Each structure stands twice: as C-alpha cells, then as structure tokens.
C-alpha cells in the first residue's frame, strides 16, 4: 500500500492485529475517522525504534491535542520472534511508560513478515504511517524521521478540513456551505 493524495482516495485497510495493549478494546482506523492518525511500527529490540521512534511518538502524544490526533504503536515483529512475545512487550510498555495504544501485528501463516507489515509494504522498523482525517494513508516513512519533518507533515494534515460525507453515525455538511451560515 502506497501513500496517496486525499482526493478520491479510499480509506486504508484495517490493521491485522492479534491484541491491543493500553486500550479498552480493539482500535480501528474507522473508529478514528475525523482525527489524524500517526502509527509507529516498531520492534522492542530495534535500536532505532527505542532511541528515536518511541520517544518521538510519546512526545507527539503528550503535546498535540487528542481531539485532533491519535497516536498508535504497532509491534511488528519480523525477527527474534521468541524473544518479542506479548509478555515481553507488556514489560517493555511498562518500563518505557508508553501510554498510547499498541497493537500486536498478527504473525503471518508462513514467513517472518507479519500481516499489517506485509499489507502496507513496510520495509522494516521503525516505520511511521500517517493517515489523514478520512483514514487515507498519506505518508509512510521508513527509518528515523527527524522531528521537524514529522511536525511539518502532521501540521499539514491537521490543517486540512475533515472530509464531508456520511459515516455510520451521521453525515457531515462541508464547512463553508450555506448550512454553516444558517
């Protein structure tokens, strides 16, 4: 799956997650529509993830309003499977004081690359996926992404208006239409 412009683009597919930690239940991209979503795909034994991606995700989660932005982690293990199990991840989340929801990427039936990682064509970890308010994947950044670059991309997505249209809970009138002036 490659990033796209928001014009006439379909929402991205849901993640293939076996469990969610730090969440009361499953987290879906559909449930986050109307918010910009930053997903940090990581492995707890990945030096770049621990040194750069996790601290960046924590900072963004603390400093940008949760009404407009959701930060998620995706533990996507493609090596050292025995060492990076759910119990080890729970300890990692506790020790690193990760407060945002973290999904465990569902292992593949065959091969080392888990489901979401394969579906989104991730090249490794860390990978940052940025979705617009309509659930469209707009940016996929592999490796260490500098804070200024991520801030600029998030600023652009946050500045965009929420898409008009209908969802399960109702229909949204486009901002600036006559209905807003009534």
Overview of the molecule:
This protein has 182 residues and is an alpha/beta fold. Helix content is 27%, strand content 22%. It is built from five helices and eight strands. The strands form two sheets. A six-stranded mixed beta sheet has the order 1-4-3-2-5-6. Strands 7-8 form a two-stranded antiparallel ribbon. β3 (69-75), α2 (86-95) and β4 (102-105) form a beta-alpha-beta unit.
DSSP helix fraction = 25-40%
What gross morphology would you assign? Answer: globular
Number of strands: 8
**What portion of residues belong to β-strands?**
15-25%
What order do the strands of the largest sheet run in, or round the barrel if closed? 1-4-3-2-5-6
Number of helices: 5
Order of helices and strands: EEHEHEHEEHEEH
Helix- and strand-based class?
Answer: alpha/beta
- How does the major sheet shape up? 6 strands, mixed
N- to C-terminal distance: 42 Å
Kindly report the average pLDDT value. 87
Please give the radius of gyration in angstroms.
Answer: 17 Å
**Regions with pLDDT < 50 over 5+ consecutive residues?**
none
Question: Which descriptors apply to this entry?
Answer:
single chain; 182 residues; alpha/beta
């Amino acid at each position: 799956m490659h990033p796209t412009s928001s014009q006439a683009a379909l929402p991205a597919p849901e993640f293939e997650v076996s469990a969610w930690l730090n969440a009361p239940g499953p987290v879906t991209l559909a449930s986050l529509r109307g918010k910009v979503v930053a997903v940090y795909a990581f492995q707890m034994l990945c030096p770049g993830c621990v040194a750069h991606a996790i601290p960046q995700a924590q900072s963004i989660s603390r400093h940008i309003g949760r009404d407009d932005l959701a930060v998620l982690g995706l533990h996507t293990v493609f090596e050292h499977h025995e060492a990076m199990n759910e119990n080890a991840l729970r300890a990692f989340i506790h020790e690193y004081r990760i407060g945002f929801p973290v999904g465990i990427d569902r292992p593949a039936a065959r091969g080392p690359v888990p489901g979401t990682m394969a579906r989104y064509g991730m090249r490794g970890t860390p990978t940052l996926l940025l979705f617009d308010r309509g659930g469209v994947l707009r940016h996929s950044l592999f490796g260490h992404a500098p804070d200024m670059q991520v801030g600029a991309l998030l600023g652009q997505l946050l500045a965009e208006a929420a898409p008009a249209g209908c969802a399960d809970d109702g229909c949204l009138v486009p901002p600036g239409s006559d209905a807003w002036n009534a």
